[in-house]
Amino acid sequence: ISQFRQDSHRARGYKALSAGMVAVAAGDAVEARRQVRRAEGLLIDPPLTMLLAAQAAQLAGDEQAATRFFSAMLENPEMAFLGLRGLLNQALHRNDRPEALQLARKAYRLQPKSERVATNLFDLQAASGQWQDAEITLDEAAKAKLVGAETARRGRAVLAYMRAEGDQADGNAKSALIQLRKSHDLDPSFVPGAVRLARVFLADGKLKQARQVVEKTWALSPHPQLF
Fold it and tell me: pLDDT band at 212, cuts 50/70/90?
């Protein structure tokens, strides 16, 4: 009889979890929280309800409660990645890049084959000027087949372009030109890199080279900026 009751509670608890997830997907915060309370009363293992509770809190606009649930998940090895990802999404939502970068690193160490986390980490590293780290992340993502070869090549082209911008801001014209050439060679269809490289050539009086860059990119990605 005791075993039957436990099985019955567990079954109803899982049913409440399922109903709660459906409510979250439907955007029904009230129903999601109601199902969380039901699941918490029926299931013995609290971690099973933590993610749903956090999502229900977010849906209700209670970010502080969501943070508490996500943080509590870090104490459980099986739930730690989900907790980190939840905290990462919160940091991204409030545009806290330093915090988001720290959380993305931790999440990536736990699950390096997560495409979403790898993408978040790459974007944050690139945005903060950590070019070498971003390139390593991109290479690892390509090796793990989280991104295709074409996407990886475009990512490297964008990184080279961003490095060139930094070099130009620092007055290092020679290094900037090297990076712009690299960006264009990696992805001739990348319009911003082609425009910047063509302008550098024009400023140096190299009209033929500027025309070659524009014509090559125009054939792949016709864009008004190339006029």
Answer: very high
pTM (2 decimals)? 0.75
CA distance 176 to 169: 9
Joined tokens for residue 188: 């001739």
Question: Residues near 136 by Cβ (< 8 Å), separated by ≥ 6?
Answer: none
Which residues in 50-63 are b (16+ Cβ under 10 Å) and which e? bbbbbbbbbbeebe
Q: Which amino acid is at 43?
A: L
Give 51-81 pLDDT, tens digit per residue. 777 777 777 788 888 898 888 888 888 778 8
Angle at 82 between CA 80 and CA 86, to 5 degrees: 115
Residues 194, 176: Cα–Cα separation, whole Å: 13
Q: What is the DSSP string of 151-165?
A: HHHHHHHHHHHHHHH
